[in-house]
Amino acid sequence: MSPESLNNDLNRRLADGYAEIARLAGGLAHEIKNPLSTIRMNMELLAEDFSNSDSARDRRAMKKIELVQQECRRLQDLLDDFLQFAKAHRLDLQPNDLSAQVRQVLDFYRPQARESGVDIVDYLAADLPTVLLDRESFRGALLNLLLNAEQAMPDGGQLVVRTYVTAKGVALDLIDTGCGMDDQTREKVFETFYSTKRGGSGLGLPTARRIIEGHGGRISLQSAPGRGTQVTIALPVLPRLPADGKPD
Ligand SMILES: Nc1ncnc2c1ncn2[C@@H]1O[C@H](COP(=O)(O)OP(=O)(O)O)[C@@H](O)[C@H]1O
Ligand SMILES: [Mg+2]
After folding, report:
1. Pocket of ligand 1 from Cβ distances under 6 Å
2. Ligand 2 centroid, distance to 196 Cα (angstroms)
3. For the whole model, what pTM was predicted?
4. Distance, CA 36 to ligand 2 centroid (Å)?
5. CA distance 188 to 192
6. Segment among 25-34, 47-56, 157-166, 236-245 with least mean pLDDT
């Protein structure tokens, strides 16, 4: 066997091995979710039994139950984020209007933003050229970015959301007035499991990046500590089809 074909063979086996491990990890995450929800349900029942008791012993038990419930929620969120990350490469791309998709996610998110004191200002361009989007994944990614912005503004703030045409396609900016991040942090935020938050999964940005790159797009960050963060998603547009149906 020539060194080149040996190399190809090794690479293929590595890739197969990787795919197998990824499949196993996804299966494992699913398997953990079932017993976890049984634990959660039973903890809720236990909490009901203990909640209205006056005894000091029951109150101590209640504290422990609450701690277990909190950790169960954390595990559940982590598994959900992990499964989201694992499936981020399977995309069903369909022609879509970026502004319309962003508007729908904002409509869904607005009540929560209001509660957190986040003022959303949107400039969503009309008549943007069509992009190919996997709606569910794209919405998931966008929601993650909105939550990051909200979490960066614990005392409220402003979030500008705008869509526009660029030289190569279309883009979406999310600009928050939150805590921002220093250069060291910014370099790490796309690493899986990197998080500066208590209980953070550190999978939001890596998942968003996988999804956006799966669309042939790019995601970039600009940030200034204490001032805020701008996230930009750039997406390619469909080639315009002239009357004869062939791309120019
Ligand atoms: N809008 C933002 N403002 C400030 N820091 C941010 C923002 N978005 C992300 N980060 C930083 O990037 C880290 C990774 O984000 P992410 O991958 O979504 O994981 P998580 O939100 O679980 O921490 C966060 O812990 C935070 O330090
Ligand atoms: Mg996040």
Report:
1. 144, 148-149, 152, 176, 178-181, 185, 189, 194-197, 200-206, 229
2. 10
3. 0.85
4. 22
5. 9
6. 236-245
